[in-house]
Design goal:
The structure holds 3 protein chains of 3 kinds. Helices cover about 25% and strands about 25% of the residues of chain B. Chain B contains 12 helices and 20 strands. In chain B, the strands form 6 sheets. In chain B, strands 11, 12, 13, 17 and 18 form a 5-stranded antiparallel sheet that branches. In chain B, helix 6 runs antiparallel to helix 8 and helix 11 packs antiparallel against helix 12. Helix content of chain C is about 80%, strand content about 0%. Classes of the chains: A mainly alpha, B alpha+beta, C mainly alpha.
Chain lengths: ~280, ~500, ~325
């Protein structure tokens, strides 16, 4: 609306999101060198203790320390989400840039239809298939999530890049005899960086959710590597005697997704004037 | 047999009590219920046990819809059924069955020697897709000299044949209806198939023309409901939607039923032997000292405690307390980490040893493997867990290709100790002494002689540890207190309902 | 426009064909053998061969693909290896659970999101607007299967007013069946409601800012009337678009929720068929779900093209 904004758009979202993500990242990195207990250490005599009765957050059905498991789980969830989004964004953006440079034609149509096909297979299902071939694990999870991300970034890069290609300065560069590759790198890529980066943060939240879903179905990292999703899955039959087993990992997932979504919203509000008007 | 007779008498006695109670009670008192909803964790794939292996098929149909020449009782022993008696020739090569008169299939078709012959021929013929076709390998020819006599001529003695004929995969089917049994089973049993709502339930109703007039069938309708998730199983039991879960899915939830006034729990034995098989052809498992060391490194009691809420029986061989001539052999290689370390050192692995275990994605297997991982770590063995989709990927990798170091799976078939003599089989285990004992079992027809051989076989395996013998899964029965007659143990996977009844 | 439409329709058909080939190829090279799974660990090689022949698994891949496409075109998707009944019958039974589930979830999310979004937009910066923002952020961040577990802890193991799982079937009476769908559809609806709240709020704000609404308001049209007569009809286009996308997502993505609540839906059928390598069933279910997503995306694209002529040039 026309009312002048009193402060920079999306500032509080950015600040809150960044603090959450930074805190989680610190915990995840810390877990590589220190956790209150070794995450895989079992003490069956101490099984199913509620929070504070054993360790800060209690123990699971093998007497493992939940706080330590959650910390190590943070590293696994964040690293898989980050890697898969970066892979998806890298391939997708490159693909989008390439077809935008070629303009209309059979190749472009084929790539966009290919995107439709990839997009039509949800990551859970592709992970099931992939898991059947090479077994579940880090690689399966990353590829399944990334393959869902590729079409998202291809479409965004293609749409933004196509607009840039119609601009005067690109036409001028063309007239100077610059090839499509040079133009893509020098003129187009820098100008589509903002929407791509905004999309990366938004997709990170989605990737965390997807990774949790995969682990929940047993398609994520194999045990004993702790993941939030598998902790939730294993907690399911213990809902009555030990509800905290299910509540805590879910909170961790929700917090991480919230953090990334807030950053994404903040960035979008700051860089996308059309959206900013509405919020 | 004595136990069974006692049980039967008990059942008759309490049934009479129930009857007299009903007679003397005021008219307002309701009659005992005559319907039953029984829960199962796994839905059968088809309803014909003679063309597919999953035990869930037999757990719905065996003894309820389909019957065999002989059957297997609560105590795991062979009893007459459609054959009222039999004779085995002294050389063990001719089995002559005297068949019952007046038996009819559910479609009205009469049962006789020709039907029995056709049924067995179907199971052993070239087109057969019977999962246990090997049962019939020894049969050379079948005769049906008259309507009530069936003669099996064998090419070699087969000491287990009679027992095998009691299995779900050996039930008698009518040649007229056999092809449709998968979706519309027609047998001779006390219950008729009425409906299958896929993904949810199978419904049976009482067979009014059941041949066994002595049998007192006290259920009119039976519904099998399929509920895979233990949380939902528990909810269905508590709400009364399901009257009984003979094999409840999650041991950790069993204690939650103790407070429930309407329900009771009963823990028995199954035939499910949880065994960590090793690739005996591969290093380091080809070295017996390594296998011994790994067995010494495991504390079975703690494994059962952590993986299955302390419910389950430790075993020292591929044999369960249900089975005839069972011996407790867990003392041969008891939990002894120091001994394990010493043995590993002797075998040249003092600097550690690492290998991979392919684990089916089922809770008992994953949990047990996670605990084994920790116990092995204490003796310097690094175990990596590779979750393996079950059954598809596991069958492909472990069973067919035999491409694995270690695996863990619950063997469901009763009395299957002979798998260690099979070649090929996924253990890649070869021991001529053991093979000889198994061959002798088949060549022996007297029970006492067979029992002695089974004892010997258990002992050979317990000492040689071709696989790490862990525990027998408990049969976690949960049911309404007023419901009686379900089996406590499960010498063969089943839900036999002919003696089940509601008390007042 | 007709030429363009025909071209797009041709593209759609090609996409569907490509997807079907991909699905068929993937399913048929999956490791694991339906015959070996059905016959268990004691079966001999000749028994396995007999069963493979019976199931038609011994024919060449290309022939099997051609046969599948040809009979699928006539509505015949083959017979399930494990159940032994026509696949279309199986899918029909499962859709009777999954479709109502997805539909209830969409209805619930509309009932939550539209009033909330409209209310938030009509008083920007107010208490309701802040609540809507927080609600949207929270519900989008929570994994649906976790919400499901929380709902079970709260309403089922705790309070005991809804079943923790299972589906009694429609023949058990509509009320019992509906009751068993309440928690699952709520778990599915909440994250969707978050998205929809934001879309509604943004759309209403967009339309409120347009000249014709401002003119109407300046002419003295009461706020409420302006909202009903001008704002909502125009804001409904993006809302309906998002709803369409959400519905396909819910039908395809219900597998996790069906798992938690043990519902015999389509996702569960696919999962079960995958573990049994019941390829015939898997092919049909995956094709159905993927086809649904592709067709809905196509329709959304068409609708947007009509609305935004700039996109027409791009196509």
């Amino acid at each position: 609306m026309s009312k002048p904004a009193p402060r920079r758009k999306g500032a509080w979202e950015l600040r809150a999101g960044a603090s959450i993500v930074a805190a989680l990242a610190i915990v995840a990195l810390l877990s590589l060198v220190w956790t209150p207990q070794p995450p895989s250490k079992m003490q069956i005599l101490l099984k199913l203790k509620p929070p504070l009765a054993a360790g800060w957050l209690g123990t699971d059905q093998y007497g493992r320390d939940i706080a330590s498991l959650l910390m190590a789980g943070a590293w696994n969830s964040l690293s898989i989400a980050l890697l898969s989004v970066l892979i998806g964004a890298g391939i997708g953006t490159a693909l989008g840039l390439t077809v935008a440079a070629r303009g209309r034609g059979i190749v472009t149509a084929a790539v966009m239809r290919g995107c439709d096909v990839l997009f039509a297979v949800p990551p859970i299902r592709s992970a099931m298939m992939l898991g059947a071939f090479i077994g579940p694990g880090r690689f399966t999870a990353i590829i399944a999530i990334a393959s869902f991300m590729v079409p998202v970034f291809t479409r965004i890069a293609f749409a933004s890049a196509s607009q840039i290609w119609a601009r005067d300065y690109v036409l001028a560069a063309r007239a100077c005899g610059k090839g499509p590759f040079r133009i893509s790198v020098e003129h187009v890529a820098p100008n589509i960086a903002t929407p791509v980066i905004v999309q990366v943060t938004i997709q990170l939240g989605l990737a965390i959710l997807t990774e949790a879903g995969l682990s929940f179905l047993g398609l994520g990292l194999p045990p004993p590597a702790p993941t939030w999703g598998r902790m939730l899955a294993e907690a399911q039959t213990f809902l009555r005697p030990a509800p905290w087993l299910a509540i805590l990992p879910g909170l961790a997932i929700a917090l991480a997704v919230l953090g990334f979504n807030l950053i994404g919203d903040g960035l979008r509000d700051r860089f996308d004037p059309k959206r900013a008007r509405a919020s | 047999m004595r136990i069974l007779a006692g049980l039967a008498r008990g059942a008759v006695f309490s049934a009479m009590l129930a009857v007299s109670a009903a007679l003397t009670a005021s008219p307002s008192m309701a009659d005992p219920r005559r319907d039953l909803v029984l829960g199962m964790g796994i839905e059968p794939t088809g309803l014909d046990p003679t063309i597919a292996a999953p035990v869930a098929i037999g757990q719905v149909t065996w003894q309820n819809v389909f019957e065999g020449l002989v059957t297997i009782g609560r105590d795991g022993k062979v009893q007459p059924q459609l054959a009222e008696s039999w004779e085995i020739s002294p050389d063990g090569l001719t089995y002559t069955f005297r068949l019952r008169h007046g038996v009819k299939f559910h479609d009205g078709e009469a049962f006789d020697a020709d039907v029995a012959k056709a049924s067995i021929e179907r199971a052993r013929g070239a087109q057969s897709t019977n999962p246990q076709k090997r049962f019939f390998d020894a049969i050379a020819s079948i005769d049906a000299p008259d309507a009530a006599t069936l003669v099996l001529h064998l090419s070699r003695p087969a000491g287990s044949l009679l027992y095998w004929l009691g299995w779900p995969s050996s039930v008698i089917v009518s040649p007229k209806t056999a092809d449709a049994n998968k979706t519309d089973p027609v047998g001779t049993g006390p219950f008729l198939f009425s409906r299958w709502v896929k993904g949810d339930r199978v419904e049976l109703k009482r067979n009014p023309d059941y041949w066994d007039k002595a049998a007192n069938i006290r259920l009119d309708t039976v519904t099998f409901r399929f509920i895979p998730d233990p949380q939902a199983q528990s909810a269905a039991l508590v709400s009364g939607d399901v009257d009984a879960f003979p094999e409840f899915g999650a041991p950790e939830l069993m204690s939650s039923f103790t407070e429930n006034e309407r329900l009771t729990t009963e823990i028995g034995n199954t035939e499910l032997k949880v065994v960590a098989g090793m690739n005996n052809a591969r290093k380091p498992f080809s070295d017996k000292r390594v296998r011994e060391a790994l067995m010494h490194a495991l504390d079975r009691a703690t494994i059962i405690d952590g993986a299955w809420s302390a419910l389950g029986t430790p075993i020292g061989s591929h044999y369960t307390p249900n089975d005839r001539a069972y011996k407790d052999l867990t003392g041969i290689y008891p939990y002894d980490p120091d001994k394990a370390k010493a043995l590993l050192k002797e075998a040249g692995y003092e600097n550690g040893l690492s290998f991979t275990i392919k684990v089916p994605q089922m809770s008992y297997a994953t949990r047990t493997a996670e605990i084994m991982q920790v116990m092995f770590a204490e003796v310097g063995v690094t175990l990596s867990i590779e979750p393996t989709e079950f059954p598809a990927k596991w069958v492909q990798d472990v069973f067919t290709s035999r491409d694995y170091d270690m695996t863990i799976v619950a063997h469901a078939e009763p009395m299957d100790i002979d798998i260690y003599a099979r070649d090929p089989y996924y253990f890649n285990y070869r021991n001529p002494a053991f093979d000889a004992v198994m061959a002798k079992v088949e060549a022996t027809t007297d029970t006492a002689g067979q029992d002695r051989l089974y004892a010997e076989a258990q002992e050979i395996l317990a000492r040689d540890v071709p696989a790490l013998f862990l525990f027998v899964m408990p049969k976690l029965g949960v049911h309404d207190r007023k419901l009686h007659g379900l089996w406590k143990d499960e010498p063969i996977p089943s839900n036999v309902l002919s003696e089940v009844y509601w008390a007042e | 426009m007709t030429g363009l439409l025909l071209r797009r329709l041709g593209g759609l058909a090609l996409t569907l064909l490509a997807v079907s080939a991909l699905i068929f190829a993937v399913m048929n090279v999956l490791p694991g053998d339906a015959a070996a799974i059905m016959l268990g660990t004691s079966a001999s090689e000749d028994t396995l061969a007999a069963l493979r022949a019976e199931l038609g698994l011994d024919r060449p891949l290309v022939l099997r693909y051609a046969a599948w496409i040809a009979s699928a075109a006539t509505g015949d998707f083959g017979r399930s290896y494990t159940y032994g009944v026509p696949v279309s019958e199986l899918i029909g039974e499962r859709l009777a659970v999954t479709l109502p589930l997805a539909l209830f979830a969409v209805i619930l999310s509309v009932l939550i999101a539209v009033p909330l979004g409209v209310g938030a937009a009509s008083r920007r910066g107010g208490a309701l607007d802040r609540f809507a923002t927080v609600f949207a952020q929270m519900s989008v961040a929570m994994p649906a299967f976790w919400v499901a577990i929380l709902l079970i802890i709260l309403f089922s193991t705790g309070w005991g007013i809804f079943p923790a799982g299972g589906f009694p079937g429609w023949q058990a009476g509509g009320l019992a069946a509906l009751k068993s769908l309440v928690l699952p559809s709520l778990a599915l609806a909440l994250p969707q409601a978050g998205v929809l709240t934001r879309v509604t709020r943004a759309a209403v704000l967009d339309v409120t800012g347009e000249d014709f609404v401002r003119t109407a308001r300046a002419k003295g049209l009461p706020r409420r009337v302006a909202l009903w007569r001008h704002v909502l009809p125009n804001a409904s286009v993006p809302i309906v678009t998002v709803l369409g996308l959400q519905f396909t997502f819910l039908v395809a993505g219900a597998v996790l929720i069906e798992n938690v609540f043990n519902l015999p839906g389509l996702g569960r059928l696919a999962y079960q068929a995958l573990t049994q390598r019941d390829i015939v069933v898997m092919q049909a279910v995956v094709m159905l779900l993927s086809g649904l997503v592709i067709v809905v995306n196509f329709l959304v694209d068409l609708a947007q093209m009509r609305l935004d002529p700039r996109l027409r040039a791009l196509a």
